[in-house]
């Protein structure tokens, strides 16, 4: 379960933000993959990254990545797509055959814009292949954006890879994007303004303070509820006019989707919670990371030094909850 959205300043500086909600402990950390990094897919595809990028993931015998931003200002996040994702059963000759969780590494390492992604997507075949970390095939869909603010979703619910225009810049989990868009018709009454007073049988009824226009806003943790809430809050929040103001607005938005431990349980009793939150500033190539264990925000600039490292670098964060006395 995750929530992701884009947001732009008045100067059209584009951001991508997401929560990473999972019960299995991912130990997600900031990781820089430099230019020219050589890697091999589970299905034997040998690749070298054209572009360096910063991501969040897990290191070990292989890098398992969940989101990231490359030096060209393309950002991407993968989210669970349970009961919907459908992949090829076997590799295809003449195509780049990837496990679903490897797709993000290929995109960030090779794609400079949404237009280039659309031009090259036909070369990719996503194969039903397990991720060793989970011992299962990850059912995923993907949100991708670039510096222009253009946003698309990549889904396989019809048994093929489809790039779908995302006019809202919002993505949660199942069902497919088209269902979420249609579902919004059930929430046309949402407004930040109060409903006016109304007479019933000559008796005047007035709102009990502010907020009556949001009475239909869903507050649960399900994917459809979070999608509607993300669209509404993104539409009406004061986005600010500078990058700093927009970043502040984004973290306030993320607070609406951050799941504390214990509020949502898997069938086995394990708690699914927001393990981290991350924001990418695509114009300034700035990365912001906020793990569950602290209220602090860590930032990293994707600069030339990092882009030209000889090998990937994993950043450790000091996980502490600090209270400053005034």
TrEMBL record:
Q: What is this protein called?
A: Choloylglycine hydrolase
**CDD domains, per database record:** Ntn_PVA (cd00542)
Q: Which residues form the Choloylglycine hydrolase/NAAA C-terminal domain?
A: 2-314
Q: Which InterPro entries match?
A: CBAH/NAAA_C, Ntn_hydrolases_N, Peptidase_C59
What family classification does the UniProt entry report for this protein?
Belongs to the peptidase C59 family.
What is the species of this protein? Candidatus Enterococcus lowellii
GO molecular function terms here? Answer: hydrolase activity
> Source organism's superkingdom?
Bacteria
């Amino acid at each position: 379960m995750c929530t992701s959205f884009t947001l732009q300043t008045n100067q059209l500086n584009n951001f991508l933000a997401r929560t990473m909600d999972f019960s299995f402990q991912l130990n997600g950390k900031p990781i820089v993959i430099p230019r020219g990094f050589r890697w091999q897919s589970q299905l034997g595809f040998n690749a070298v990254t054209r572009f360096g990028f910063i991501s969040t993931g897990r290191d070990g015998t292989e890098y398992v990545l969940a989101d990231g931003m490359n030096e060209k200002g393309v950002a991407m996040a993968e989210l669970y797509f349970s009961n919907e994702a459908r992949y090829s059963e076997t590799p295809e000759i003449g195509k780049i055959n990837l496990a679903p969780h490897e797709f993000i590494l290929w995109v960030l390492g090779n794609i400079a814009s949404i237009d280039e992604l659309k031009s090259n997507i036909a070369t990719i075949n996503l194969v039903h292949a397990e991720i060793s970390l989970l011992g299962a095939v990850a059912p995923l869909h993907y949100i991708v954006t670039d510096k222009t603010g253009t946003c698309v979703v990549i889904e396989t619910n019809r048994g093929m890879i489809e790039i779908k225009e995302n006019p809202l810049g919002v993505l949660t989990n199942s069902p497919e994007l088209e269902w979420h868009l249609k579902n919004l018709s059930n929430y046309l009454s949402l407004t930040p303004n109060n409903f006016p007073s109304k007479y019933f049988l000559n008796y005047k009824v007035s709102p009990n303070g502010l907020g009556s226009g949001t009475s239909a806003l869903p507050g649960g943790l399900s994917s459809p509820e979070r999608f509607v809430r993300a669209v509404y809050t993104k539409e009406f929040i004061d986005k600010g006019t500078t990058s700093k103001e927009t970043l502040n607005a984004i973290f306030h938005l993320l607070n609406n989707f951050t799941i504390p431990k214990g509020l949502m349980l898997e069938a086995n009793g394990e708690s699914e919670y927001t393990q981290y939150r991350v924001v990418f500033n695509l114009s300034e190539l700035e990365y912001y990371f906020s793990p569950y264990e602290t209220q602090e925000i860590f930032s990293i600039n994707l600069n030339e030094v990092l882009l030209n490292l000889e090998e990937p670098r994993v950043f450790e964060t000091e996980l502490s909850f600090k209270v400053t006395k005034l």
